[in-house]
Specification:
disordered C terminus; 7-stranded parallel β-sheet; globular; nickel cation binding; hydrolase; about 240 residues; about 40% helix; CobW/HypB/UreG_nucleotide-bd; alpha/beta; Rossmann fold
Length: about 240
């Protein structure tokens, strides 16, 4: 059976992207850097999570950020206030970062800082629950965010994101009592798709769960080849 033109084009695009991702990861490995790729829908809390992470872990860890947005440097400017190098990538109409874009960001980064001095590169991907999961950028682990305001059915409706993620942060936990969401059902739906995923419920506002997230990040930096077994199951309302 012959492939359709669209299917063949998609395979070629993904193959070319994977080659670029492998090259990016080789650079990260050569420099001794761990790279984490943060993905979510718009408004799930990626940027505020990064703000809390930078405040807690820098300068314990030497961190740089590659910030992806369709337009503007608003989020990049927020993160620059924490004294870390931030490379902004505007994707235009593209709904995700790809390995070529991140390679360009790494090129810019090497002009700002000696990459061998870094421990961690955090990639904030474009807000989207579909495309970012399919395009690797050279990361050692994928981190997905799902806010409680998005509902408990999203893992079933957008399975690729949650199947590919190594860690899931369920964000805005402080809002759970005020929205119609079942935290136990979120956990069950996610584990149905990805039984091995690390689940960490957090609130950037109250600080709940952030220490567990910080410890998971530290584990990736020290042992990027082995995913942490740190987890915290949901408690009822």
């Amino acid at each position: 059976m012959h492939q359709t033109f669209d299917a063949a084009l998609e395979i070629n695009l993904l193959h070319a992207n994977q080659q670029g991702a492998d090259q990016n990861r080789a650079h990260f490995d050569q420099w001794g850097i761990t790279c984490l790729n943060l993905m979510s829908s718009p408004g799930a809390g990626k940027t505020v999570l990064l703000e809390r992470t930078l405040a807690a872990l820098h300068p314990e860890l030497q961190i740089a950020v590659i910030e992806g947005d369709m337009t503007t440097e608003l989020d990049a400017d927020r993160l620059r206030q924490y004294g870390v190098p931030v490379i902004a990538i505007n994707t235009g109409r593209s709904c995700h970062l790809d390995s070529r874009m991140v390679a360009g960001g790494l090129h810019q980064l090497t002009h700002k800082v000696d990459p061998t001095s870094l421990d961690l590169v955090l990639v904030e991907n474009v807000g989207n629950l579909v495309c970012p999961a399919e395009f690797e950028v050279g990361e050692h682990a994928k981190v997905a965010l799902l806010s409680v305001t998005e509902g408990d059915d999203k893992p079933l409706k957008y399975p690729i994101m949650f199947r590919e993620a190594d860690c899931l942060l369920v964000t805005k936990l402080d809002l759970a009592p005020y929205v119609d969401v079942d935290l136990e059902r979120i956990a069950a739906n996610v584990r149905q798709i990805n039984p091995e995923i690390v689940l960490i419920p957090v609130s950037a506002k109250t600080g709940v769960g952030l220490d567990i997230w910080f410890d998971w990040v530290r584990t990736q930096v020290t042992r990027p080849d082995k995913l942490s077994v740190v987890t915290q199951e949901f408690s009822g309302r």
